[in-house]
Amino acid sequence: MADEAQLQVMEFTNLSYGSLTCLIRCLSGIVRVGDRVRLVVSDSVVEGPLVDGLTVTRIERSHDVTVPFTDPGMGAALTATGDIDVRAIRATTAGTPADQLWRRKLLLVLD
């Protein structure tokens, strides 16, 4: 995973069965609107993604300023759509305060 695009999930601001919006920080690479991504837990003993086949539909830099991509060091609100297993995400993040979700080491990576 070291040489692929990685977005650290800091907090979920919207989570539903068809879309999710999260605050992210780009750790490496570039992710663009339209890219396919998967949600993984980087320190998990479980093989495979928590959710895969998501499509990035919006990247918002700040105050409704949308941008076409993220690059290293950038923070943004990212919206992705797809078949989202809300129950699995909630189980993974259970007991973690919303503002400390980064401790769960959730990453969005290119599919």
CATH topology: Elongation Factor Tu (Ef-tu), domain 3
The low-confidence runs, each spanning 5 or more residues with pLDDT under 50, are none
Sheet having the most strands: 6 strands, antiparallel, barrel
> How would you write the strand order of the largest sheet?
1-2-8-5-4-9
CATH architectural grouping: Beta Barrel
Number of helices: 1
**Distance between termini?**
11 Å
What's the order of the H and E elements?
A: EEEEEEEEHE
Strand content: over 45%
Q: What's the mean pLDDT score?
A: 90
What is the tally of beta strands? 9
What characteristic shape results from the CA principal axes? globular
Under the CATH scheme, which class? Mainly Beta
CATH superfamily: Translation factors
> What would you call the structural class?
mainly beta
What do you see in this structure?
The structure is a single chain. This protein has one domain (6-101): Translation factors (Elongation Factor Tu (Ef-tu), domain 3). The chain has one helix at 86-93; strands at residues 6-15, 19-28, 31-32, 36-41, 51-62, 65-66, 69-70, 75-81, 106-110. Strands 1-2-8-5-4-9 form a 6-stranded antiparallel beta barrel. The chain is built from 1 helix and 9 strands. The chain is mainly beta and 111 residues long. The chain is globular and about 30 Å long.
